[in-house]
Automatic annotation (TrEMBL):
Residues 1-22 form the signal peptide. It comes from Marivita geojedonensis. It holds the Pfam family Cytochrom_C. InterPro entries: Cyt_c-like_dom, Cyt_c-like_dom_sf, Cytochrome_c-type_DH. PROSITE patterns: CYTC. This is Cytochrome C. Residues 40-138 form the Cytochrome c domain. One of its GO terms (molecular function) is heme binding.
Length: 155
């Protein structure tokens, strides 16, 4: 009986130790932050936006017309990044991944998107800066909602 209990405890301890080292279990669970109040990073993000994003999403973040209706080729037009779009509905981590890897890589399957990944061109810091620039243009109440989305989606 003692041997069975000792074996069970040893097995449980080994299982707990193994689980503790699984990827993600011991990592710091913090969401990437967007520097939307840092004027230097906002200015850097504005340059990145103008260079890489404005040709599709519009110089004023307005997106393409009829952005919720698929085109004849099955692709959606580029959405606006101002408060009228859905960018602020997504947490920082997902936004970073979309810019870095592209929408098709994130959504998967047969989803059609012209949003390519910029991970080969932009650093994570530049991606955070451009997203910080975008967020800096939103009304305060939208920024606060976005902050709440980030706080409640932490694992």
């Amino acid at each position: 009986m003692k041997r069975t209990a000792l074996a069970s405890l040893t097995g449980a301890a080994l299982l707990a130790a193994g689980v503790a080292v699984l990827p993600g279990w011991t990592e710091d669970k913090t969401r990437p932050s967007l520097p939307y109040t840092d004027t230097t990073r906002i200015a850097e993000g504005a340059v990145v936006y103008e260079t890489y994003c404005a040709s599709c999403h519009g110089i004023n973040l307005e997106g393409e017309p009829n952005w919720m209706d698929r085109k004849d080729d099955g692709y959606l037009p580029a959405p606006p990044h101002d408060e009228t779009g859905h960018t602020w509905h997504h947490d920082n981590e997902l936004l970073m991944r979309i810019v870095r890897d592209g929408t098709e890589a994130i959504v998967g399957g047969t989803y059609k998107s012209n949003m390519i990944g910029f991970g080969d061109v932009l650093t994570d810091e530049q991606i955070a800066s451009v997203l910080g620039y975008i967020k800096s243009t939103w009304p305060t109440e939208i920024q606060e909602i976005h902050n709440e989305i980030n706080s409640r989606t932490l694992p």
